[in-house]
Amino acid sequence: MLRISDLSFSMAGRPLFEGASATIPAGHKVGLVGRNGAGKTTLFRLIKGELSLDGGSIEIPARARIGGVSQEVPGSDVSLLDTVLAADTERAALMAEAETAAGARIAEVQMRLADIDAWSAEARAATILKGLGFDSTAQAMPCSAFSGGWRMRVALAAVLFSAPDFPVVGRTDQLP
Question: Counting CB atoms within 10 angstroms of each CB, which of 48, 73, 105, 153 has the fewest?
Answer without folding.
Answer: 105
